[in-house]
Amino acid sequence: MSRILLIEDDIPIRQELSELLRNAGYEAVYITDFTAPLPEILSAQADLILLDINLPGINGEQILREIRRSSETPVIMVTSRTSELDEVLSMSYGADDYITKPYNPTILLLRISAVLKRSRDTVTNTTYRGLTVDIAKGSLTGQKGELILTKNEMLIFRTLLEKQGGIVSRDELMTTLWDNAEYINDNALTVNISRLRTKLADFGCENAIETRKKQGYILL
Predict the structure, then answer these.
(1) CB neighbourhood size of 2 (10 A)
(2) 215 with 166, same domain?
(3) In sequence order, what are the beta bridge partners of 52?
């Protein structure tokens, strides 16, 4: 489940956004202190930030510049302003997208999904249990050589890896696959997870995926 941080001082709008995001399957968190927000923003470890430009004591563009000094977390600017200058400045400071109020909820959710997907796609290499994971290639490399995963298997593995140690629900895995135009049903998901678990075990990663009944899966 992707975590989205709301930086919005208008309480009714913040509550509305939180409900919208939670109903869409996201985890919504927020801050309420805007005097020196950077430590709290970074500690939230969000997957995406919705940042209002008009904030008390400091504007969102200042916060965006501070965020970009130490983090590449995707940021979508949300504002009631309609000036093209604000959009240009936001994008030049490192915003990933920009939307004006009153926003269309469906469009906002589509933009969030698109930005999150772009963000995941830019990460091509990482590690797991001493193995090099090449997401773009769909492979794991280690002392035993190279393990090639199918597209579905890598999408599942990447989603579990992003939340390693945390529970990922079947619904979240299905959503990830559908978002990537991989249309599979519930039974096919079970088969893909079983094959992925077997491949990892054969490659030296025994008991890599733990099943939590009625909850989902954990990558250990």
Answers:
(1) 21
(2) yes
(3) 78
pTM: 0.58
**Same domain, yes or no, for 50 and 148?**
no
pLDDT digits (tens, 9 = 90+) for 54-96: 888 788 888 888 888 888 889 998 877 665 666 666 666 678 8
Is it true that the peptide bond before 37 is cis, omega within 30 degrees of 0? no
CA quadruple 83, 115, 128, 207: dihedral positive or negative?
Answer: positive
148 shares a domain with 189: yes
Verify that 82 and 142 share a domain, yes or no.
no
Show which of 102, 121, 140 is a domain's final residue: 121
Q: Quick one: tokens of 34? A: 């805007």
Nearest to 129, CA basis, from 156, 171, 105, 164: 164
Answer yes or no: are the C-beta atoms of 141 and 134 closer than 8 Å: yes
The burial of 167, by beta-carbon neighbours within 10 Å (0-12 exposed, 13-18 middle, 19 or more buried), is given as: middle
**What domain count does the chain have?**
2
Longest CA pairwise span in the chain (Å): 57
Say if CB 174 and CB 186 are below 8 A apart. yes
Q: Got the DSSP string for 142-197?
A: ETTEEEEPPHHHHHHHHHHHHTTTS-B-HHHHHHHHHHTT----HHHHHHHHHHHH
